[in-house]
Amino acid sequence: MTLFDDLRQALRSLLSRPLFALVATATLALGIGANTAIFSLAHQWLLEPLRVPAPEQLVNLSWARERSGWTSSNNAGSGDAVFSYPTFRDLERRQEGFGRIAAHRQIGVNLALDGETASAGGLLVSGSYFGVLGVQPVLGRLLDERDDAVPGVAESVVLGYGYWQNRLGGKSDVLGKTLRVNGVPLTIVGVASAGFDGTTLGTRPDVFVPITLSWSREPNTLPEHESRKAYWVYLFARMAPGLSIEQAQERINGPFHALVEEVEAPLQSMSGAELERFRASRLTLQPGARGQSLVPEQARLGLGLLFGVTALVLLIACVNLANLMLARGAARGAEMAVRAAIGASRGRLLCQLLAEAALIALAGALAALPVALAVLGLLARLFAEQIGVIEAAGLAPAAVVFAFAAAAATTVLFGLFPALELARTAPIAAIRGHGPAGAGRASTRLRGHLAVAQIALSMALLVLAGLFSQSLSNLADVDLGLRTEGVLVLTVAPPRNGYDAERSRQVLARIEETLAGVPGVTSASQSRVRLLSDDNLGGNVSVEGFQAAPGTDTQVLRNEVSPGFFATLGIPLLAGRDFTAGDDAAAAKVAVVNRRFAERFGLGDAPVGKRVALGGGVPDVAIVGLVETAAYAGVKDEATPQLFMPIAQRPVARETHFYVRTSLAPEALMRPVEQAVARVDPNLPVDGLQTLQAQRVESIAEDRLLGHLSAAFALLATLLAATGLYGLLAYTIAQRTRELGLRQALGAAPARLRAMVLAQVGRMGLLGGAIGLLVALGAGRAAESLLFGLSASDPRVYLAATVLMTLVVLAAASVPAWRASRVAPMEALRHD
């Protein structure tokens, strides 16, 4: 017989038992679908390279060093990955023999076209950006070195493919049109290719603009952006052909060391030892095939854990199917024996049985694809900010290949052992009914071992789900030092409309006043930093009376806020005063610090009256208030020193976030708040309008993902284990009907028969539970860094999981045990 004959016969056999085929296919579809969905996320977050030529030649630059000045980073990388603009230009000129360097920086933009203004995502790029990547335009040309030759001057813009399609209908006549980007009229010169979404995972720039627009987007900031102490530009490079990363690193560090010695070091306000460490610092190159993003590093452990969880669910599904196949084989013992008796070899029987398993696996893989898409869609709705881009991409070809590879693996996992057991049929014994396949002691032991494995895997998943659920609960209960309930947050950016500093300040002040007058609003205030959003602004400080020892960390987080900010957010004022309307640009510089700042710099409970300086130099900013330490970038962040300054004293106006406290339900004020901003300036878009509580929830998205998914998969695994255990016991009782009848005939009480079945289940439960607890302990310790407020061996979680699994096992065993005690002796004695 050919393979085709085996498959045809296998299909006929499965169609004769449609319920079995349906249950087996659905079980596999759930297991493979869950794995495929998580693999799709992992592939796109961790594995898929940029869609550019030879991505393996790309490297990302970083510079770990002590530094003075200010640092501004985002999700493209940490503070070590940002450079000053002059340093980028110097490296660009000194890269002989190394390769080509490019710079970029993600920004928010307001785009004005055909009389409508809307907020969008933009990417500042150097003229070398597209050339280094090797990206080609789908229309027109891309930016090059002619577009960023003069600081403060930008004339061209390239559209992202998605923006071109969705906003402009994919029309080819867009070339040459004027698009106002942050109030600057730019000429559309091209459209980036489909599938190119920049170099930072999770972002989709609508426009690519010359990096020199950074000065135009924030008027009067040229000195700041030209400063070598302003670190804000991300750098990557394409290595020269034939170079390894190690060789490229040596080549770039030669001219870089000269640059540090000649230019950078003399500008640093550092002590002797600090300066020596600064001079000894080196550039580090990391593989850049997947672009620059913090997402892979942040998501690797969590996704790996989720992938392990779904793999355990699939294993449980396979164990279930193996038991089903063994039970089905018991009923087919005579059929297999007849085939063997008329000449079918053991190999032929094995091929036919594996063909059945392969067809089930294939059907399961096909059914798993819509399951995986549904899971991705559900995740995208629950975690829109984090994986909405992933949902739009759907299942990558690699994910489809994975689904079918998983199907092939499951064919072996659930099909091989039952097939071997069936193929060992003793023809004469099976035909006589004394030795049906699967009914022997070896088969019974195998099914028992499989049940133990199911219990062990389910127990491990229950513990892990409990750990992450408790961690999520702890995060929900953590005291942030501020009150998130009853607060709305929104973002406006007058400079993006081309407003100068003075006009921007006036517009922002009028917006704050108008928001405070909305019925139901009790207070409104401004903030430079959007709290709980991974937004940060930091730098070194010098504090009056504090002598920093070598290696002392003098970095603090900064914010610029308006009067009433602390009251709006419910941050207690411990000493001194809040900012007032008098703390404007003409007044003396003042600051408020938090308790952690006072502790770090030895100010105790009396920091008021002390002076600080941003960076080096003589302290010239008077501390006028002390507030309690509150959360800054995220819920899980440790307490950090924070320095607040009046927003009216900042030299330039920037993107600003408003916090609005209301006595009503904050959701009910969203529309009135938007209308209030429109009354001040109808051309100023409102971004990121949401409750502060929603912002808090978004900030723990990874924990929510782990908590919810691990709980869902643990529930699925437990249900599979329970049904598998029930099926095994029901089958075992059916096979032991004669024995149970004889025991009753000889005087065994029904209670004793029930106890006999429960004892069998108890042994399996104890062994499986113990193994599962050990597995969970090891897995929990590996993922302990993802937990918040508890250890991987928290006894409460292990106890709860044990109780739950005990109840599940007893529930699965109760009906078979009751049936065992209800066997009629005379009926059992007639049982074949």
From TrEMBL:
Record bears the keyword Ribonucleoprotein: no
Localisation: Cell membrane
Coiled coil: none
Stretches assigned to the ABC3 transporter permease C-terminal domain: 309-426, 712-823
Family under the similarity heading: Belongs to the ABC-4 integral membrane protein family.
Organism encoding this protein: Dokdonella koreensis DS-123
Transmembrane segments: 20-42, 301-326, 353-380, 392-417, 450-468, 705-734, 755-777, 797-818
Domain MacB-like periplasmic core as annotated: residue spans: 22-253, 450-679
Membrane topology per record: Multi-pass membrane protein
Upper taxonomic lineage: Bacteria, Pseudomonadati, Pseudomonadota, Gammaproteobacteria, Lysobacterales
The name this protein goes by in its record: ABC efflux pump, inner membrane subunit
Classification via InterPro entries: ABC3_permease_C, ADOP, MacB_PCD, Macrolide_Exporter_MacB
Any GO molecular function: transmembrane transporter activity
PANTHER family: ABC TRANSPORTER PERMEASE YTRF (PTHR30572:SF4), MEMBRANE COMPONENT OF TRANSPORTER-RELATED (PTHR30572)
Main localization (coarse): membrane
Alphabetical list of Pfam families matching this protein: FtsX, MacB_PCD
Keywords tagged on the record: Cell membrane, Membrane, Transmembrane, Transmembrane helix
GO cellular component: plasma membrane
Source organism, top-level taxon: Bacteria
